[in-house]
Batch of 4 targets.
Target 1
Amino acid sequence: MDPLCCSFTIDYRFPVHFTRGVFALSNPLFADLLRARGFRRLLLALDDGLVARNDALPEVAWRYLESAGLPWSVHVLPGGESAKEGDSAVKRLYRLLEIEGLCRHSCVAAVGGGAFLDVAGFAAATFHRGVGHIRFPSTLLAQADAGVGVKNGVNFSGKKNLIGTFAPPLAVIDDLDFLQTLDPAELRAGLSEAVKVAMIRDAAFFDWIESAAPELRQGKPGAIEKLVRRCAALHVHHIATGGDPFEHGSRRPLDFGHWAAHKLEQMSGFRLRHGEAVAVGIALDSVYAVKTGDLESGALERILALLRNLGLPVYTPELRDTETLLRGLGEFREHLGGDLCVTFPRGIGSAHEVNNVDDALVRAAIGELERR
């Protein structure tokens, strides 16, 4: 008998806004978004790490939402990578969503770092099979990369993002003022994702990062804003035009440097920030690419020099545990299934995917980084 065939297309659209003082009463951006959507209820979740640096934020947000006239509540919740371990943070958010009476015509607005947005986005995507969510990335790494994507997830069984969903936000709002209160080390860590996307997508952007490295390392607002905007534009362009926004295939082109980074984070007990681990992953894969003949040595010197000039690491002692690190390749393949597919550079601004990684060359690359 002939099967029945059901075919339909869903149109996803979400804006990425850039602003300052998003909860100032004089700034209508968020209020206008809420009114345009006609939500029945709103739960605003604030990352406790952000609140620790901005202790007036809950009251400022409370007053802003009160002026918007929408049924709402404000909650300060645990953030940071530890919030993604296990299910306690997600369950806590589920309970709040139930207590506050959120329905499918409601919205979760999450303000915080990438890990916090992951937890809130996962909870929103699975509560009532999906309520709307709006992201307010508050770290450089989140504003430039993780927070403008369509993925969210939590860690499980010692594996990063093993559980999660693809759930595009209704909107992303980058409030650049949040970056001014970041710890300098946290700000520097976010620069690695800019180096990553420039290396595989935009040679001119890489050139600019090189020239602006002193200002970026010092957190100069003008340079940081330009970097955030370009990173977000490259990220959104890939999602919209790459042909596989929900990663049904095996390619993960924007995850250059990440197969090692994810494992190194776990191996360090998350002593390494994500951005720091990505910097080491970029360095490792770049040295590997020289050894395979895909990257010129001159390009490698520029890459390593730039990472150092930005205050980022190119080596960590965890690399010495090579056997554990190499298990990260299997976990990386397992995450998507199918063939292993890892992005490596072919030059600054150019990349390609490979399906086999030579363990001996990885060990040699680690040895070179240690000698350097």
Target 2
Amino acid sequence: MNNDSGVMVRKDDREIVGYIRTFQSLESVCDVQESLIRRYCDENAISFGRIFRDVGYSKRRHTDDRWKAKKIGLDTKSRLHTFAAWEDMLLGVIDGEIGCILVDTQARLFDGAEQKQVLERLCVDYDVTIIEVANAFPPDSAAAVGATIYHYPVQFGARTCILLNDIDALYNYASHRKRWEVASLFLDLSPNNREGFAHMLEIAKCDIVLVKNFFHVKRHTSSFVGVVKQLHKKGIRLVSMDEGELNISDKECVDLMKQPLKAAVYDWHKSEYQEETEKLQMEKFQAFVKYKTNGWTIRNIYIDGIRSGTKEELQRLIHNVEKYDIVLLDSFDKFGETIKFTKIMKELNIPVYSLKEGVCINGTENL
């Protein structure tokens, strides 16, 4: 399938069209897709004609429309989802009317192997170009908060509708935030291949990175916090549709160091060696409080061991959190992987400082 994300102007007189697909009737999602297509054309001086829209689908093909399937190359007796506008668009390709298709992501263009194979064949046979308009950052805009969306599907091998429903949910979320505008979309089809994520971080030019949940950023907490710090240095906020915004502030961290705070220390021994070096670990916390802060006092220490297999002390800390102003860790990893870490941060709802990462995170905030 042809995929050219750069500027493309056809030399022939065939039409450049846009394509929109949703599995649910959400006007906001259609609006986001259309705005991405129109903005791409405006920025690159491209004139395009129609926008084909499939809002929902038909579960069974009508007998009178079987000629369309036959001409396109689909199984005329198939009970697969039928997208009327998609078929009309491909008929325009076969009739020599359409030479370029603009879409936010190629995933909109097929649902299942049959549609994908037909589309790939027609693009080759009729020299059709497909441009994904949402994987490049637009110029700065003072009129809106630019939101870049990143996502990868958790259910691999599932139908395209699962991926699109997640993207549409993110579009819908962004469209209902005041002054937000979806600036771009980056996807990876597998967590083992994060080229889209790496590319997004490399060229990030937006106000917000929006994800379904923080687990999609990084699985391991220390790596996740590293990404948060990287985005923070660029002035980019990280927001999760499920968990809200993770608050990290250099200024707030400096201010906290100067205040006489009541601190609770939490540690979790992942190995017998860590249990044996517990005294050195506590001395490290004491030294930090003494030399790096202005009046912090350690009021209590909560330690979970490898032998218990549970985190009873962590739960006791959460239960008694109102007694403290801040929680001190040697690493955010001690709260577990990212999905657990963000849950615990929300339950604590007070600043947590990590010696290893050198940052203070002040819980999460729902938007």
Target 3
Amino acid sequence: MFRTAIAVSPHSSFVMNDRDALRQEARLRRAAAVAAQNDAAERLAAAFLSGIPFRAHRTASGYWPVGTEIDDRPILRGLMAEGLAVALPCVVKADQALAFRSWREADRLVPGPYGIPAPHDAAPVLRPTLVVVPLLLFDGTGHRLGSGMGFYDRTLAELRAQSSILAVGVGFAAQRIAELPVLPTDQRLDAVVTEEGVEWF
């Protein structure tokens, strides 16, 4: 079972150790959810497309699922079918925000710095206002726990400084926790969609 934690200083070794322990447990929980549900991606897409006001946006970003991450590609196909431009994230540098480059299903992807498939450098750079965000855990206040590299926190902060966006986390319902330890740099999500539905914050 996950422990309930409180927000403390980002310099506390307890917090970092606690978040690392949560990540290990979360990966096990996510793997179990993958093994138990063959139709989770389709249910996720149905919940997203019926519950998120995506038609207010022209450009959306998703991610290329790796490992046990829930597959968001059915969502992206649905958004493209509705006329939205879709982009995938590209790592620029380890300490910078992500860039988003245009993606269509026929496009050839190339391995990024961490081996994750990404659009080629020649693909146009887009600025999404609807951002589909992967996660390891999320809580009832919209906070998420990611892989620990900080890419999405930097990216969401940068996008929000430039315009209004809708940040939607996606994952399995089993990835919800009552409360996460929070750092000052953490960016909250506006909503999370799971195979069971939409939760707004």
Target 4
Amino acid sequence: MNKVLPHIALDSGKSPQHSIIWLHGLGADGEDFVPIAEEMSLPVAVRYIFPHAPKQPVTINGGFVMRAWYDIAAAEIHAQQDASGMRASQAEIEKLIAQEKQRGVKAENIFLAGFSQGGAIVLQTGLRHAEKLGGILALSTYLPLAETLALEASPAAKNTPIFMAHGHNDPIVPYSLGKSSAEKLSGLDYQLEWHEYPMQHSVCMEEVADIGTWLAQRLTGQV
């Protein structure tokens, strides 16, 4: 088994048969979404995996070294994309998926969730993963490497449900970029549900409630 990224693992009950791999945003770490996971009351036991992104210099932040899933070269985040960095992170998330499968969790019971940079990587990974996953939650983010998706997309991913959410007033990842990403995926017949909220680059309580409802439906097959 290939070595996986350092991560926090949290089981919400005994012998979970479902896993949620949840990626933080730029400069944060795996601790970032632990409180939200602990807040959610899901109908079945879930294993949460919160990986820590590797530390690397980030160009837009003056080369300062921080936890990042890929480099960002310009203020217009999707203009000069770090394809190699994105693909390297995709490979790391694939290792985490493989780990959960080795533990006996079926691919269809594995969910990928991510915020901002983490959201871009769960879209990058989930849309290219060979099997249908339980779902993809992409929060305050955008579709990376959109120009290669048609060539690289997995046919199985067309059946993976996607939850995308964005704040109207996001100064980091523009609302228009998130919305156009969702429209592109919907136009390609992905099973996408779009949510928007009066917030900036953050997560709000209404969004957490909507995530809980969406997850509960898919964890119990009541869709």
